[in-house]
Amino acid sequence: MIKTSYYQDLTKMNTFGMKVKARCFMEYDSVADLVDIEFEELARPVLHIGGGSNLLFTDDFKGTVLHSRIDFIEILEDCQQISSPVLVSVGAGVVFDDFCAWAAKEGLWGVENLSYIPGEVGASAVQNIGAYGVEVKDVIHTVYCYDTVEEEFVKFDVSECGYGYRDSIFKSPEIKGRYIVTHVVFALSRVPMPKLEYGHLKDAVESSGNELTPSNIRNVIIRIRKEKLPEPSVMGSAGSFFKNPVISQEHFARIEAAAKAEHGADYKVPHYDLPDGTVKVPAAWMIEQCGWKGRRSGGAAVYEKQPLVIVNYTGEAYPEEIIGLEKRVTSSVKEKFGVDLHPEVEHI
Ligand SMILES: Cc1cc2nc3c(=O)[nH]c(=O)nc-3n(C[C@H](O)[C@H](O)[C@H](O)COP(=O)(O)OP(=O)(O)OC[C@H]3O[C@@H](n4cnc5c(N)ncnc54)[C@H](O)[C@@H]3O)c2cc1C
Questions:
Q1: Architecture of domain 73-228
Q2: Active-site pick, 23, 69, 166, 254
């Protein structure tokens, strides 16, 4: 069934809590519904949303917003042999964390480290979500889509999805918006495969004293995430607002020399050396060094516990206030470090 409404309030459909409206909003609950939608006739532009947790609506949306309620979790193949993958098909409209909870309850390994990431299954395959050393591409088998140009159903093997860091072909400018993800097949495992190498996860899991099961790892991750990140139902945000910049070694050496002059010779600038000789520097560190951590600007603020996150501090922030703070942070970082920050969050 397709439900259509006009001048739909989107406040509760974006985790930033921007009070905006969509001229036309269409919600459908089956794969077959997509065939009935006349894409050529829709008010333009057309935007398919999931849980709205990576979006910043900058204004009312003048076109059509689509949303999937395709909601099933189905085991396709489970030959009960411990070493064989368990193929699970999941509708695009399923909340990703509900799928993680289901997998943990079934004792299936693969998505426990991705627990509590906001959003839905369809977008997870677009975004290549990741956390605690795991990316969703590691467990995706096939992505099923509706091609709105050719008006046909198509599928992409994981190797065809062009996955990179929070990236996929579905985000590439040439085809963005063309494919609507209808469902995703994941390959989970009955063989224990805990991934605990990231940060202090191993210590946190060990100190919980519980045995290594998907459920217990999931519970530890949820606890850590709740300590570090704003709960969307309490304080609006879209998670990490900026991408971590990648700079040349020479540029990094200049930043490091300046930081040592400021903080002392033993000071260490956090960074990751990439295989191609460039250096990734945490944007959070740069933002904090510019004095933005916890600072407010109108209804917006840089989150006090994680400066990579911009929050709707008052719950009443206007898009202009979020964008204003984004600009101020970006220009401070440019001035102090000569680095351009780019948003991770999609501006609509
Ligand atoms: C507090 C917080 C913490 C977060 N932590 C993490 C984290 O640890 N790791 C991480 O990777 N991300 C994180 N995020 C970002 C966000 O959760 C992910 O990007 C998530 O995948 C977005 O899902 P969504 O359903 O909300 O998609 P939306 O934000 O609604 O959409 C994201 C993109 O997917 C497209 N899209 C949505 N559904 C479909 C579909 N069915 N077919 C085709 N395209 C579609 C949209 O057009 C858009 O381009 C966090 C966000 C918040 C608010």
A1: 2-Layer Sandwich (3.30)
A2: 166
